[in-house]
Amino acid sequence: xGRQELIHIEPMQLQDLHEVRAIEKLSFVxxxxxxxxxxxxxxxxxxxxxxxxxxxxVVGYVGLWLILDxxxxxxxxxxxxxxxxxxxxxxxxxxxQLARRRGVRRMSLEVRVSxxxxxxxxxxxxxxxxxxxxxxxxxNNEDAIIMWKDLDNxxxxxxxxxxxxxx
Length: 167
Known about the structure:
The protein is of the alpha+beta class. The chain has one domain: Aminopeptidase (3-Layer(aba) Sandwich). The protein contains four helices and seven strands. A seven-stranded mixed beta sheet has the order 1-2-3-4-5-7-6. Helix 3 links the parallel strand 4 and strand 5. It is globular. The C terminus is likely disordered.
């Protein structure tokens, strides 16, 4: 049994926020605040967030906004010590499955032009470059690549959340 099999994907709960924030701070120069995550979970009816847990500890998370028949990935991060183990891939599969069940046909995200590792993951999952948002990241004025994925053309059998009944 591999380490990836010990990861469970489930909806983010309020009690997960302190661990989510810790990963957020380790992952981003301009991290979201606790209040931002709290508002997403408690006030934004279009927001959906999942966490990856290993031995009851949050090791990664992903967020999605639903806008009509489109989904937008707001953020995704995996604890730096656990990157490269497929956790981000599983989170993205799980959020796509959730989105598809809610009628989403296309998904989008932005990624830093300098983040080649994330871009490689997104391309491998079927996202395609659609444009550039100049100066999108306020911390250093870096451009963002806009990426889109068509869920209608995706192989539904490849999605494996490890815990489908809770999503």
